[in-house]
Amino acid sequence: MSRRLGVAAALVGDRLLPGDVAVADGRVEAVGLAPAGATGIAAPGLVDVQVNGYAGVDVAAADAAELATLHRALARDGVTSFVPTLITGDPDATVAAAERLAALDETTDRGARSLGTHLEGPWLAPERLGTHPAAHRCDPDAAGVERLVAGHRVVLVTLAPELLGALDAVRRLTAHGVVVLLGHSAATADAARAGFAAGARGVTHLFNAMEPLRGREPGLAGVALTRPDVVVGLVADGHHVAPENVQLAFAAAPGRVALVTDATAAAGMPDGRYRLGDVPVTLGGGAVRNAEGALAGSAATLAGCVRNAVGAGVPVAAALHAASTTPARLLGRDDVGTLRPGTTADVVVLTDELVVRRVLLAGQEVS
C-alpha cells in the first residue's frame, strides 16, 4: 500500500526537491509530489562509516545482544547503515571482534544495517596515535594484513602512508576490495600523494591526528582537499573541528565530505565513564576524553553533526548529502544513502530544524 510521508521537500541527489515522498512495498515510490507537506525534509537514511560504539555499547567488546541494542539505537537516531569501527588493540582481541562483527548481516531486526567493519589501526604513525594504545601499534606487513582482513568482512582500513610497508599494504588491501583511508599520520604532501597513487581513496577525520596544513607543506590535509578523487571524513561534533574549518572543508571539497561521528559507547548516554576498546574514557561537557584529557572519539549523533555543519554555514542539502550519499559512495554502495524512485525506503524524516522525527527502514517505521 502506498503512503505519503507528508514532507515539504526531499534530498534527491545533491539538492532539495520540493514536494512530498511516497513509499510502497519497502521502496520509494515517488518524489516531488504535490501537494507538499507544510514542513519537514525527507533524506536518505544516514550512513556513518566510523562508529566505535553507541548507546553504552563498545563495538570491540560487544556480544550479539549488545550489538542489537547498538543497531536499534543508531536507527532510532536516523542512521540506517553504518560501519562498526575497531581501534588499535591486542591483535588476538581485534581478530575475535572482527569475527563477531563479520557474523552480522544487513538485516538486523529494526536496526541499522552493518555494512562491514572499519579497522582504524594498528598501522598508524607513532607520533599521531591520538588515543590509540601505543603498545599495539605496528608497521604493516603482508602477514598482518592477511590475518586482520581475510574473511572478516573488512570494508575500510585506516593507515599512515609514510610507514615502512604502507604502500604495499594499500595495494594489497585494495586487491582484497577494501577501501583504504589515510589517517593518524605525520605524512608530508609527497607521502600523501604516494598513498593516494597506491590506491587510497579517502582520509579519516580530516584535520585531526595529522600534520597541520602549512603554507609550504600542505601535508595530508592539503593534498586530500585538492584531489577530486578523495573523500574526506569530518567529525563535526563541535569539539574536533572549528566551525571555520568545517566550512573550509565543504568549500574546498564539494560533494567529497563524509560526515562521521567517531562515536563511542558514550553517545546518547549521560556524563560518566565508558570504554573505547582498551581505553577508559570519560564523557563530560559533551566531549569524550581519555585520562590525559585528549579527545577520544565523540558522543555525537550523525544528525547532530549535520546540524553543526549547517550552523557553521554549510547548506542543508550539502550537509545531508555528506551524511548519506557521500559515505555510501565511498564504500561503492548505490543501494544505501540515496532517495529516488525504486530504491529501498531507508528514509529519515527531519523537522525544518533538522531534528529526527521519523525513521523508515525498508519502509518500516522504526520506534
UniProtKB/TrEMBL annotation:
Its family remark reads: Belongs to the metallo-dependent hydrolases superfamily. NagA family.
One Pfam match: Amidohydro_1
Which keywords does this chain's UniProt record carry? Answer: Carbohydrate metabolism, Hydrolase, Metal-binding
Gene Ontology molecular-function annotations: metal ion binding; N-acetylglucosamine-6-phosphate deacetylase activity
Q: Where does Zn(2+) bind?
A: 120, 184, 205
Tell me the ranges covered by the Amidohydrolase-related domain, including all copies.
Answer: 42-366
- Name the cofactor(s): a divalent metal cation
> Which one GO biological process term can you cite for this protein?
N-acetylglucosamine catabolic process
> In which residues is substrate bound?
131, 208-209, 216, 240, 295-297
Q: What is this protein called?
A: N-acetylglucosamine-6-phosphate deacetylase
- Active site per database record: 262
The record's remark on the cofactor is: Binds 1 divalent metal cation per subunit.
